[in-house]
Protein: LuxR family two component transcriptional regulator
Amino acid sequence: MAAMADVIEDDEKERVRVLIVDDDALVRAGLSMILSAASDIVVVGEAVDGAEVPGAVSKHEPDVVLMDIRMPRVDGLAATESLRARSGAPEVLVLTTFDADEFVLRALRAGASGFLLKDTPPAEILRAVRRVAAGEAMLSPTVTRRLIAHVAAPAPPSRARAADRLAQLSERERDVALALAHGRSNAEIASDLHMSVATVKAHVSRLLIKLELNNRVQVAILVHDAGLV
Structure:
């Protein structure tokens, strides 16, 4: 019996572990059903408010958190900011009803790896979870432009500060940063810039360290703030 439990535990560790955070029971049930149908994903827990996120993450150790934005006590924005400030934090995919929600952009700036509309088709939800678990972003170029346009454009001093931060990059790193801002995947960047995927990943890692950012979405936003896209 103990051996069987060990096999189940090892199998779960090999799959993408997901924590669902939403105050709507029907949304949680729907997402859980969609995710549980995939052989490479397991729902390890649920939470009904942002206030429950720290404890749930410590208990369940998810790879990805599906985070609702609008919740009654602690919203998804505050929960994302707090969570992503932790060492070894899981990736965050924010959930929203509106793709022009200004809070989405704030969540992305706080370190979320992308966002999903609540009416996203099941296959796309599964693809998004797999993609962010693999360290990629779930944010299309069109969505990025719409989000950036939804809020006030950066004031000249802010644009200058963003440009100054990017100025520390090498020419190749700058090319990779621009590609990230266009929503390109590692494989696409490798093809466009004639380098291996492993080299692209190395460049992305150096970008994050140099720019002191959490993920590639924040790099994309910084490039937009600098007025380069």
Observations:
- The CA atoms of residues 67 and 94 lie 5 Å apart.
- The two ends are 58 Å apart (CA to CA).
